[in-house]
Amino acid sequence: MVERLLNLFWILLGSGAAWHAWTLGLRGPSGPESGLFPFIASCAIAALGLALMLARGSRVTRPDWPDAISGLRAVGVAIGIALMAFGMDRIGFVAAAAIAMPVLLRTIDRASWLETALLTTGSIAAIVLIFGRLLGMPLPRGPWGW
Amino acid sequence: MDALSGLAMGFSVMLTPANLYYCFLGSLIGTMVGVLPGLGPLAALALLLPVTFTLSPIAGLAMLAAIFYGAMYGGSTTSILVNIPGEAASVITCLDGHQMALQGRAGAALGMAALGSFIAGTLSLVVLTFFAPVLAAIAIRFGPPENFGLMALGLVCTLFMITGSKLKGLLMIALGFLLSSVGMDMVNGNERFTFGITNLTAGVELLSVVIGLFGISEILLNVERIVQNTLVAERIRKLLPTWSDWKASFAPILRGSGLGFILGIVPGGGPITASFMSYAIERRIAREPERFGKGAIEGVAGPESANNAAVAGSMIPLLSLGIPSNPITALLLGALIIQGIQPGPLFISQRPDLFWGVVAAMYIGNVMLLVLNLPLIGLWVQMLRIPYRFLFPVIVLLAMVGTYSANKNVFDIWVMLGFGILGWLLRKLEYDIAPFVLAFVLAPLLEQSLRQSMTMSVDGAMILFQRPVSAGLVAASLLLLVLMVIRQFKTKRGDS
């Protein structure tokens, strides 16, 4: 089911991108225009998506989908990353990481609160020290200046 | 400049405290990545790529190359002691290496893996030293049509790299091609597929794509299952192999070196194929093949030598022609491009300091790795005790900071997350994502050289066939394409 949906997505993506590439122009006076290469790639995506939809041999017979608990762990990690991406611009790297790290740590194996606090503090400090200080990379800061 | 004076120059460039430090750091991280199951060299390189932005090109490249071959060294430790491959090229080492450990010979297996890797790495570096400049000297006369031929050949070779479904692999190449066209067209300034999003004007960031596809997707896959490591040896003794071990291993090391080096050059080859083929050959020619799988030292020496030799081999097409032969060298190519350096036929003549510096760094790194892998084996054994649940949040933080560092833009982190989820889904559905990255890196170069060729031509596309070298390269690409179609057809007929 998921694979069929993905194949359908390839067909739609390829068709849409091919149409957009067509509007950019395929050939001009001095050869290929901006649209030619993406047009070829898009047509290939649509055609291959269609071929995958029709060819049974290329389908995964038993996809290794996670069970509910394992799946939740992966979702937890994705949410942790999203939380941090959302927070980094607004409250700065340190605060965003301090919120996201416990989500990540508690998602996987129910780390104890002490372990969570120690690892969160340690890893944030290490990253600020290595990237922010030693490598001179400006990490995003919050409204309070850190 | 001849090879020896070039090499002397390379050593003079590399032998500064800062460059040696980054080479050592790369070797250390590479070994760590190889030892720890769940983080392959590709993901580690993707994660650490941003760190190199603040370094000089030579320090950055020396560090990344060291991570690549360091992982090949370190991978054997986990295979031998835990029976879990630290990285994919060490899968085959589990068979005999772990059996040796169960028989109380973990030290000999680890020692032979490290020494075999060192010998193979050094031998293949000697060949690299003399062969790459010859290839580059031929390629120096290349113009846009020849570059197009070269890139087309590189892209066709990508087809041979596809594992699993060819249709899915081809789709990944087309997707890489399409995604690389997002952003401003460098020839005429037209915006393509940006849909008014300012963050897309400069294109999709390579770093976000590779960290997402390889790093984040690997983390998502790993957190689904918590791997429990079971060490078979607490203390490792007698790391130096005995005379009889050497006698049994000498020929497999030499064969592994040659095979690995050749497979490293060939697109689609690389360390994984090299180690598997070396094992198959050793088993086939052995007097007592029944010993294999039960602790035969040849089954450790051959594959471990082959995967290290393949690393040096894969540097030849990358540094002399600008063609990556596997996903890891595609990442190294990306690192060079990000640094503003375009590897290709002119690379050795224009940046001899960098080329010879990298070669020298690999010689130095090889020695560093021998030191790291033999006397410090106890440290790596202890590292195997760190639970993954403590490691992965740190890796996630590193990925995020690394992605952010490229443009100081949070938008790149969202792109990384999107590609991480896409990578997870594609890997579940058995898509080979490596060709995607190769196409993503090669496609802009291919498009640019074709359009430059067409601009300078009065006969349109015929220019590609009017110049002997470009005609040869395009013909070779077409021939390879036909060969692949025939092979595919034969496989299909054989199956039915």
Summed over residues and divided by their number, the pLDDT of chain A gives a mean of: 85
Helix percent of chain A reads over 70%
Q: Compute the gyration radius of chain A: what is it?
A: 23 Å
What is the total number of structural domains of chain A? 2
Distance between the termini of chain B: 56 Å
For the secondary structure, the number of strands of chain A is 2
Give average pLDDT of chain B, whole number.
81
Tally of individual helices of chain B: 21
Structural class assignment of chain B:
mainly alpha
Q: Main β-sheet of chain A: number of strands, strand sense, barrel status?
A: 2 strands, antiparallel
- Uncertain parts of chain A: none
Biggest contact:
A-B, 71 and 62 residues
The count of β-strands of chain B is: 2
Most strands sheet of chain B: 2 strands, antiparallel
What attributes characterize this protein structure?
heterodimer; A: 146 residues; mainly alpha; 2 domains; two-stranded antiparallel sheet; 4 helices; 2 strands; 73% helix; B: 496 residues; 21 helices; 1% strand
Structure description:
- The complex is a heterodimer of chains A (146) and B (496).
- By secondary structure, chain A is mostly helical.
- Chain A has helices at 2-24, 36-54, 68-109, 113-134; strands spanning 27-28, 31-32.
- A two-stranded antiparallel sheet of chain A has the order 1-2.
- In chain A, β1 (27-28) and β2 (31-32) form a beta hairpin.
- The longest helix of chain A is centred in the middle third of the chain and has 42 residues, at 68-109.
- Chain B has a two-stranded antiparallel sheet.
- Chain B has one domain (3-229, 239-495).
- With 496 residues, chain B is mostly helical.
- Helices cover 73% and strands 1% of the residues of chain B.
- The mean pLDDT of chain B is 81.
- In chain B, 60% of the residues are buried.
- The N and C termini of chain B lie far apart (56 Å).
- The interface between A and B is large, with 71 and 62 residues.
